[in-house]
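Q: Give me a backbone?
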Amino acid sequence: MPNRLAQATSPYLLQHADNPVDWWPWHPEAFDEARRRDVPVFLSVGYSACHWCHVMAHESFEDDGTAAYMNEHFVSVKVDREERPDVDAVYMEAVQAATGQGGWPMSVFMTPDGEPFYFGTYFPPDARHGMPSFRQVLEGVHNAWTGRRGEVEEVAGKITRDLAERELSTGDPQAPTEETQAMALLQLTRDVEPASGWFKGDTKFPPSMVVEFLLRHHARAGSVAALEMAEGLCGAMARSSLYDQLGGGFHRYVLTPRAGGALIPHFEKMLYDNALLCRVYAHLWRATGSDLARRVALETADFMVRELRTEQGGFASALDADSDDGSGRHVEGAYYVWTPEQLREALGDDDAESAARYFGVTEEGTFEEGASVLQLPQRDEVFDAERVASVRARLLERRAGRPAPGRDDKVVAAWNGLAIAALAETGAYFDRPDLVDAALGAADLLVRVHLDEQARLTRTSKDGRAGANAGVLEDYGDVAEGFLALASVTGEGVWLDFAGFLLDHVLARFVDEESGALFDTAADAERLIRRPQDPTDNAVPSGWSAAAGALLGYAAHTGSEPHRRAAERALGVVKALGPRVPRFIGWGLAVAEALLDGPREVAVVGPALSDEATKALHRTALLGTAPGAVVAAGAAESDEFPLLAGRPLQQGAPAAYVCRNFTCDAPTTDPERLREALSS
């Protein structure tokens, strides 16, 4: 019989709706029930594409004996971290403070008042490698709760007080300087592996936001080292098993084998990674003209539209790492890996032998059970381009017959904002109006489903139905960023207006007026044991960095001093953290580059955007590499954009104005002169 999760909109929660565990969603009634029964709360946090979440669910939460013990002695609460990033952030901070590490599934035991006292991540069904079994943990917590309650409550109170008393130092209230950016670049050069191009470390996540900083720093300061590092990182990612060499798109991360050899991917595909990387590769192409960057940007965009777009026009959150291997087993990576025999079946002997060399498929295998993950280990191509395309098409067709990974159809506002920006710009750069249309479709869904009458955002939706959880700071910042990119690409000022509505909420509900610091949740949001606040970028731009970037872009479009001042104050944290931990504040550093450059404001005026001369100027403006530049395009004296006011045609011809702080250089009607103005 389904439990209380059967009414959820989260695919992750729905995966647990038939567990024998009597799960509750995160809700005050769950904690009231724990008080009534005088039992602790067990909080389990995960997400749909999480491999070890599925493992623990199968081993423990689907086990009748374990579930019966949980139901008798605990109130069990299941949370999708993607729906409630605030809950995840608060308790992950406690887990990391107590254990020195974190991860998912996250397992937290707490009092009925939400005060945590025991922590962990994945627990196996049997004790192993010095790790207790999950049943041992349950029994130990129950015994402590019933036999040493005073101790437990003292520990819980101390942990809660310690969390509440933690103060985030925002550093110098002044914005970052040239020195800040140069020191960050120097630190990054120390973190790179010269031979591979990757950053150091056994676990390698795609550093998309750092690459964006490097590209912007090169554009502004002319740093050859920054561009070389960006090219090295992007080349390493695109050639490795992090990238799906057949279908396009990136996996979550790769691991370095201890004995050397091929990188081993964790196969889940997340919307946010692919949106950020699509935009980065498009920007790399814009800076260098690289064929590799062009191919990866377009293939990643096509992957998102083909495999993640929902019927309602939004973009689903993720594809699972696991899938059926054809024998009924649910295996990580089964959809993506190949053996030499499978290549022969798909291609025939001659092409299979060459494909094996080209993609690094070996008899021993580079993954598990003799299978290999496709990568491009050789720099000298074995095939010509036409033959490569033929082989890839045939392998992709054969792969399409395999059981596909599950898809998390939940639409997350923030990640859709990232996708809108990536698809709008990629479509504009490469003359792909279908990609711009996909961005418009997602933006329309966000307006129709995620925005209420007061322009407050809902965090998620599914099947066109809004979820129950309020948007957090990253939702407001990333969606505003997407709308600003869409406004620049389409020349439709309504998207600038929508961005303004969202950013007004940021100023009113997320900013500490005294310090200029930003909180991850609104002032009127649900109260947790601590109001989350984290300026560091992780897998996605922090809400702090995302909001700062959108505030700065909106100020450049409109001349709004309150928005610019809020962005500058927020960027003070970059001055504090950038030189020390640049890999964890990459988007903040990228926004700082835009601030140091102006950012530049480009007004393109003409009789209509369909006019060929106007289109040429508009395209040139969009392809300019000036960091964070905003583009307003439309009819002269149009009221669509403030930047167009007072910007007439030049002798009846379309013209472009390049400005900083609404002070403009002489207008030009020549696309080449505009290009030069945006490159200096």
